[in-house]
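Case 296 in the screening queue. Each case pairs one protein sequence with one candidate compound; here the compound is NAP. For every case the pipeline is the same: read the inputs, emit a complex structure as tokens, and attach any notable structural observations.

Predict complex for case 296.
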Amino acid sequence: MANINTPIPNLRLSDGNSIPMLGYGTGTAWYKSGDESKIDQACIDGVKASLSLGYYHQDGAEVYKTETELGTGLKGSGVAREKLFITTKVISNIADIPNALRTSLKKLGVDYVDLYLIHSPFFSDDKTVHQQKWKQMEQLKDEGLTKSIGVSNYLPAQLDWILETAKHRPVINQIEFHPYLQHAGQIDYHKKNGIATEAYAPLTPVTKAAGGPVDDVLAKCSKKYAVGPGEILLRWCIDQDIIPITTSGKEQRLSDYLRAMTFKLTPKEIQDINEAGAKKHFRGFWTHKYDEKDHR
Ligand SMILES: NC(=O)c1ccc[n+]([C@@H]2O[C@H](COP(=O)([O-])OP(=O)(O)OC[C@H]3O[C@@H](n4cnc5c(N)ncnc54)[C@H](OP(=O)(O)O)[C@@H]3O)[C@@H](O)[C@H]2O)c1
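Case 296 output:
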């Protein structure tokens, strides 16, 4: 296994906190559709393996039903709490956000999380409802139960609603982001408003949407930097100040991904990936909420 000693860099958020620029996810492949109380040992082992490689940024959500596994993996890892960056998200219990976070903390076995996100905006089309929900998120930050607060899957217009009345602005929007879904204009909107972008499904061009216009430029960069195309996709995010969240049950892959910390893409290479990616559109998540022609 590769022994990569280059640590994962941090990005400073607009509230002054810092986030490691590569996260390990406990959703998608680990998502539990059945009984939450049935513990998935493979997920615990995945979390532990990722922590032992230095993935201190862990991404969870109440809806994944794997917070207990994440908590068990964290506890068994021996990594100090201050070193960890733990995210969880609320959506199933959006009706009572304070209680949802307290329940999540119990499952995770911690006193606070580093980042708490509203998982999606689709629970309401009403601006006032979103503003009220955001107030509850702010209270949890004020109580110290979460260090930072943010959202996931929000469009700029929905972020505008929150920003209109926010005391603490959302510091992150976690969205599906890869060369085949670049959300024209949204990353600039985030930057202008002090909102960092987290990218889930960053490997889509080599997994679910494999075979497409970015293949050639990925192959060229892979050859130049002597890494796999997955590492190029992760680095493409990092070099744009975007935080990729990946996952794997394979320790070898997680180890290989750390090679993304050993080089930087040139601005021309980033542009080449952007331009090639723009030739194809692919969305893997929340497809029931968007028209196929909707590239936002
Ligand atoms: N906020 C949201 O709405 C939302 C939505 C989706 C995801 N997320 C978060 O983001 C995390 C990562 O999402 P993701 O899983 O879509 O990320 P991803 O990094 O794009 O994909 C990782 C998956 O791809 C597989 N993979 C990697 N290389 C492969 C290859 N060469 N061939 C075939 N399969 C390959 C991995 O399987 P192996 O185990 O075989 O390596 C793993 O299941 C989730 O766990 C979750 O925490 C959030």
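Case 296 observations:
- The mean pLDDT is 96.
- Residues 17-176 form a domain with the TIM Barrel fold (CATH 3.20.20.100).
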